[in-house]
Amino acid sequence: MDEFLAITLAPPTVAFTALLALMLVYWVFVMVGALDLDLFDPGGTAEGVDGAGEAAEGGLAGVLSALRLRHAPVTVVLSFVALFGWLGSYFGMRHLAPLLPVPGVLSGLLVALAAAIVALPLTSLVTRPLAPLFRTAHARGNADLIGKVVTVKTGRVDARFGQGTLEDGLLLHVRCEDPDALARGDRALIVAWDEEKEVFEVEPLEAVMGNEKRRRAE
């Protein structure tokens, strides 16, 4: 146990340990529904703010594409990178580093580099089969979905964040101007397709139906 902790909490393994711990905490919060981050788009990160945020998002998406890691959302990718990187670093420091004819610091850097190099292709290999789970409706006739009803799957839906599913389970990115109108489990009506942002605009189904009934009564 002492050897395990010594390697886990010492460079370079400690970097992967910290990342792995961070991802574990993230997934715990996700499972209890206490965290809603727009990181479930295979294209990248949470939506940016102004030009700088959009540039950063596009840059990260480009890096993920170059590394063939866009099959799954960033959070899933980082989780596997952290896991494989930690395993490679731990066993590398335990079995490989003592055999390297170089100083301890340099051997640690070599092990960390090797662990990262191994983690990336392994992550790509593991996440490829997961791609269908995160496929959105971009390949479908988006305008044809106007008038369909979705069930909200995120804790909130506002002008910058939100996801919902159709009856067939297809995941859609949805937006609503009223940030307090929808919550997880609510049903919403798709009222428009935003071609520029590639998202669906929705309104609470009950509100739309109520307005329709009032118009008919008048």
Spatial sequence of strands, sheet with the most strands? 1-2-3-5-4
Q: What string, H for helix and E for strand, traces the elements in order? A: HHHHHEEEEEH
Task: Count the DSSP helices.
Answer: 6
Unreliable segments of 5+ consecutive residues = 34-58
Tell me, briefly, the overall form. elongated
Overview of the structural elements:
This protein is 47% helix and 12% strand. The chain is an alpha+beta fold and 218 residues long. The protein folds into two domains: 131 residues, no CATH class; 81 residues, OB fold (Dihydrolipoamide Acetyltransferase, E2P) (Beta Barrel). The chain has a five-stranded mixed β-barrel. Strand 2 and strand 3 form a beta hairpin. The longest helix is centred in the middle third of the chain and has 24 residues. The N and C termini lie far apart (76 Å). About 11% of the residues have low confidence.
Main traits of this protein?
218 residues, alpha+beta, five-stranded mixed β-barrel
Short description:
This protein is of the alpha+beta class and 218 residues long. 47% of the residues lie in helices and 12% in strands.
Secondary-structure blueprint:
Elements: H1 2-8, H2 13-31, H3 50-66, H4 74-96, H5 104-127, E1 149-152, E2 163-165, E3 171-175, E4 187-194, E5 199-204, H6 205-217
Parallel strand pairs: 3-5
Antiparallel strand pairs: 1-2, 1-4, 2-3, 4-5
Helix pairs in contact: 2-4, 4-5
